[in-house]
Amino acid sequence: MEHKFVAKKYWGLGHSAMSGSDALKGGCNDLIDFSIGNPDLVTPIPIIEAAIEDAKKGYTGYGSFRGDPELVSEIVKQYKEDYGMDISSKVVYITPSATAAMYICLKSILDEGDEVIVQAPYYTKYIEQVELAGGKFVTVDTYEEEDFQIDPARLEAAISDKTKAIILNTPSNPTGNCLSLECMKEIAKIVEKHDILVIADDIYTAYSYQEEFVPFASLPGMFERTVTINTVSKNFLMTGWRLAWIVAPDYLTDVFQIINDGIAFTACSVSQRATIYALKHREEIQPKITKIFRERVEYAADRINKIPGLSVINPPKGTFYLFPNIKGTGLTSEEFSKKILEEAHILVLPGTAFGECGEGYVRMSCTMDIKLIAEAMDRLEQLFTK
Ligand code: PLP
């Protein structure tokens, strides 16, 4: 990173835990890779076909600045149908991924040194995104014993006069857990009291297994202080299509447009057409996807809980991630990850990649066939039942 042509402010930057995991993969041909949240299944074929048809019809150029108007009205409709929320097209902004959405949002709201609170364990990219946008990253730890809920007192203690926003992510990557409605209501009281913005990274809405997903923005009084990020990546198995959207008060979406004009300008036209189809047909498409991943995490959780030294919240609450507790093995997260990579050819990410309070845990992304999960569990069982 240290080169005269690289801006000095970036000299200290390293690679994230996720991009670094690529380096660990070499060397064994029977590796079972739980490291990245990239679903193994192909995008549902009707979505692909609809996109091809629309591409042939000419949807191949730049689109409207704020997004394909048909997609925007489909999102407005979906908010009404799924959440009973009346939103206008002015509050919707289409972006090329949730990753871009988060960065555009942080760039829009942060002055140098403003603080952003994030629930830990957290999605690893948040730290880079907050810091690259000039903010200070502040964590509020959550614990398995507390069902990974955000403790109101701990949240209030993390707030300072520099706090600009809090990022919420439920269902959560990496813990796979969901914030309860009660917890979200407590958070709502606190953000109102301290006049803080909420960025709800709502990207696993189709994967809330125990309870119906409730958007934070739908809580009384919260729409005016919430930026909601949605993406097709996980909900429709479309990680490669790079398409997402932000729903936020229009005083913010106007700024998003100014910033994104100089970054990506508009989102991919064909992906927007694919998303129109996906949203229109979500009731047929999503339950099939959710069922597959739910079966996988439930199977994996049952098996993990039978392995000496390991345990995991069971039944899993959401997403396709599990965050097993490995404290009973006497190993640290790093040691455990290294051991199972070397001795069982299983790649996971140490919990510490998601914040210090991830010590004693590892993250497993169940984005593979259940037979492969079974094979991994057999190997782990053998390794820890000696
Ligand atoms: N936010 C969270 C919590 C994620 O887990 C991910 C991807 O794993 C993203 C955002 C990125 O989504 P996208 O593929 O739309 O950039």
Walkthrough of the structure:
40% of the residues lie in helices and 13% in strands. It has helices at residues 17-24, 45-56, 69-83, 98-109, 125-132, 152-158, 181-194, 232-235, 250-261, 269-280, 282-304, 333-344, 370-384, and strands at 32-33, 92-95, 115-120, 136-141, 163-168, 197-201, 226-231, 244-247, 321-322, 346-347, 349-350, 362-365. The strands form 3 sheets. Strands 2-8-7-6-5-3-4 form a 7-stranded mixed β-sheet, with helices on both faces. Strands 9-12-11 form a 3-stranded antiparallel β-sheet. The longest helix has 23 residues, at 282-304. The mean pLDDT is 95. The protein binds pyridoxal-5'-phosphate (PLP). Residues 37, 97-99, 123, 169, 173, 201, 203, 231, 233, 239, 244 line the site of pyridoxal-5'-phosphate (PLP).
Distance between the termini: 44 Å
User: How many DSSP H or I helices?
Assistant: 13
Low-confidence stretches: none
Strand line-up in the sheet with most strands: 2-8-7-6-5-3-4
Global mean pLDDT? 95
Radius of gyration: 21 Å
Overall 3D form: globular
| DSSP E strands, number | 12
Order of helices and strands: HEHHEHEHEHEHEEHEHHHEHEEEH
State the secondary-structure class: alpha/beta
Q: What is the helix content?
A: 25-40%
Strand composition percent: 5-15%
Mind describing the biggest β-sheet? 7 strands, mixed
Bound ions, cofactors and other small molecules, one mention each: pyridoxal-5'-phosphate
Give a summary of the structure in a few sentences.
The protein has 13 helices and 12 strands.
